Amino acid sequence: MSLDRRDFLKTIGIAGLTLCTPDILKAGKSKDSDIEFRGMLYDSTRCVGCQTCETLCAETHGLPPPVGELKAGVVRKTDDQHRTVVNCYNTSKGEVFIKTQCMHCNEPACAAACLTQAMYKTKQGPVIWSGNKCMGCRYCMVSCPFDAPKFEYHSANPKIQKCTMCFEKIAKGGIPVCAENCPAEAIKFGTRREMLTEARKRIVENSKTYVDEIYGDHTAGGTGFLYISPVPFSELGLNTKIQNESYPELSKGFLYSVPTIFVLLPPILLGIYEATKKNQTHENNENE
Amino acid sequence: MKTMKTNNTALPLSRDSSKQSIFKFVLSELKPKGKIFTPFNIISIPIILTGIVLIVIRFIYGIGSVTNLSQEVPWGLWIGFDVVTGVAFAGGAYVITFLVYILNREKYHSIVRVTVLNGFLAYVFYAGALLLDLGRPWNVVNPIIGNSFGTSSVLFLVAWHFLLYMIAELIEFSPAIAEWIGAKRARKILSGMTIAAVIFGITLSTLHQSGLGALYLMAKDKIHPLWYSEFIPVLFLVSSVFAGLSMVIFEGAISHKVFFKQISEKNQTSQKGIVLGLAKICAGAMFAYFFLQLLVFIHQKRWDLIDTPMGYWYLLEMLGFVLLPMILYVYSYKKSNITLAKVAAIITMLGIILNRLNVTVIGFRWDAAIRYFPTWMEFVVTLTVIFTEIWIFRWIIKRMPVLSEPPSWAKENK
């Protein structure tokens, strides 16, 4: 019996240590108050579709050059070899360009989904991936509402590919290559707060040019990448059905119920066990 | 084929501890018993060999070389069927151990070992199948050894629970192994751990059966609204009860035909009462499940979704594969009809496959331009996993006291 209990307590103890701490919000919130999340602002009215960002992104990260023709109505997608893609849509205001890449959510679903913390939100803002932790389960891809993480399906040593906001560069005070080299100045880099202010300023000053909305301000709990545009975002292929609450919030309720069940269920079961044990002889005569 | 002469002994022989060393005994037991060219072997051997080749290809050229998985659909048949559905079917172990050890329903005692063995093997193989789906399987220990705990992840919880539950089930089953190799002292110690392992195992099962559903909570925009709700975890948990028990009924029916020689006389006669008892529990669990589904349906105001192809598909699942088998189960125990219960078990199992695949594969990205459909290779690998598990199951049944009576010394010890 003593061994019984010891084993029981030991296992409960291990489980308690490892399973009872769903600190889901930690993924998203920076504790260093002096460091602010960086963000990027993309202005669809300025983009001319030169694809400089695509080409330079590929060069910087050692990926193959962009493929497919940039043509109105043709939707190209980011994949495991192309971290960013510019598309052109026929809209109510004529042809409008839009760049797609990882949105760098404030509370990223991919990071909350990752069971090894291979995908994580840095305190500078970018959401990045580390290969020595990732086990390639692709749960980040299942969870991301923007389908940002891409997986190298044809590799024996596959990596997750997605925009890193040029983390190595900005950690040293630099600017992401796309923002640095955009000839039309359609992409701007700074703190997320500055980007939001800038976006609002542009919308207020040119209220006829822009729709009065910032994509990413609240989408999925707020994203590091922000869009402003001359037309509603649904015309530009952006998913406007994405909820305004963060995605990790969706599994939070379940995760918070885990420690409760873990603590309460075993004693209940033990209680039933003790209660039914004495009636054992009667049980046999009873019908099920 | 040379070992045929040992085959005339019907019941598995346990080692007589005084005469033989454990090592020699286990070595001799490794040899196959029984005929090689049975219909099952003829079908399974070529499939397993093909599967092994495909697995080698997969590890050399990447997952994309054998599967149809895409950037939009990262989880396919291997997760949706092997893991999510397989684990639901393995739910019988926690329900039966709950009945026998916690509620002290002695009636079901004779099927505890075989159910726990089934559950254990299901976890080993179906959770093992997860390794095939991992892009970087060499990092699989990362969430366990503690250098990177992703505690905010539902998958982290599921991974830990799989591991711990396998250990719990191994402890629950271990007395049978001890009886097989004739380790009397070990058996006594291991038997003493059973109740702790059972309580721990039930708690783990509650959480990871629901956890498998909770995995899909963040895929809110990707799953068809008829199958997505915040209640997926609860629905998965409740349905695992009758999924597991239906599997127990189904597996019992087959075992009674295939392993007739191994099953003790006492167990053969008690079979009817067990099946009818399980049918009753299934019917109850299915009623709760159906009612929950109905509540979710009404609360989420899904009426306008019904008159669509996916809506008809949903109705088929709910009426044809939940309500119908539930009624059959009720009839089977009212009329004491075992055959009806077995039919109900098969329909229920098909319904579980349907439900799990609807959440994980069919309803996942239901609106995509290019739908995911598994390659033949994904099917072959899935069959390889199932067949290999059956091989191991058969190997154990024929050797250890699972369906048969434990050796006499084990009973005296009790």
What is the helix tally of chain A?
9
The description of the largest β-sheet of chain A is: 3 strands, mixed
Shape of chain B: globular
Trace the largest sheet of chain A across and list its strands: 8-1-9
**Share of helix among residues of chain B?**
55-70%
CATH class of chain B: Mainly Alpha
Gap between N and C termini of chain B, in Å?
Answer: 39 Å
CATH classification class of chain A: Alpha Beta
CATH architecture of chain B: Up-down Bundle
> What is the helix fraction of residues of chain A, given as a range?
25-40%
What are the main properties of this structure?
heterodimer; A: 288 residues; alpha+beta; Alpha-Beta Plaits; three-stranded mixed sheet; 9 strands; 34% helix; globular; B: 414 residues; mainly alpha; Formate dehydrogenase/DMSO reductase fold; 0% strand; disordered N terminus
Would you write up a description of this structure?
The complex is a heterodimer of chains A (288) and B (414). Chain A has 288 residues and is an alpha+beta fold. Chain A has a single domain (30-248), classed as 2-Layer Sandwich (Alpha-Beta Plaits), CATH 3.30.70.20. In chain A, 34% of the residues lie in helices and 14% in strands. Chain A is built from nine helices and nine strands. Chain A has helices at residues 2-19, 52-60, 109-113, 139-143, 167-171, 177-181, 192-205, 248-277, 280-285, and strands spanning 38-43, 85-91, 94-100, 119-121, 127-129, 150-151, 160-161, 187-191, 225-228. In chain A, the strands form four sheets. In chain A, strands 8-1-9 form a three-stranded mixed beta sheet. In chain A, strands 2-3 form a two-stranded antiparallel sheet. In chain A, strands 4-5 form a two-stranded antiparallel sheet. In chain A, strand 6 and strand 7 form a beta hairpin. Chain A is globular, with a radius of gyration of 25 Å. The longest helix of chain B is centred in the C-terminal third of the chain and has 35 residues, at 265-299. The radius of gyration of chain B is 22 Å and the shape is globular. Chain B has 16 helices and no strands. In chain B, helix 7 packs antiparallel against helix 9. Chain B is mainly α. Chain B has one domain (45-405): Up-down Bundle (Formate dehydrogenase/DMSO reductase fold). Helix content of chain B is 69%, strand content 0%. The chains are: A alpha+beta (288), B mainly alpha (414).
